[in-house]
Amino acid sequence: MPKQKTNRAAAKRFKVTGKGKIKSANAFTSHRFHGKTKKQRRQLRGTAVIEKPMVKTYHKLLQK
């Protein structure tokens, strides 16, 4: 049976941490900042960890 391929779209968007958690960029950060508060904009910087129920699905996409 052939090897499974990694989903390339997912590989570009998600990274696996050393402990197996998956991190990604936050949503709602590309435009329309005038409608968001300063606090919202500050908290959307950086990366977020994917919630536990979705981790198994993302691992399948990333083949890890």
From TrEMBL:
SUPFAM superfamilies: L35p-like
GO CC aspect terms: ribosome
Keywords: Ribonucleoprotein, Ribosomal protein
Matching Pfam families: Ribosomal_L35p (PF01632)
InterPro entries documented for this protein: Ribosomal_bL35, Ribosomal_bL35-like, Ribosomal_bL35_CS, Ribosomal_bL35_sf
Family the entry assigns: Belongs to the bacterial ribosomal protein bL35 family.
Protein known as: Large ribosomal subunit protein bL35
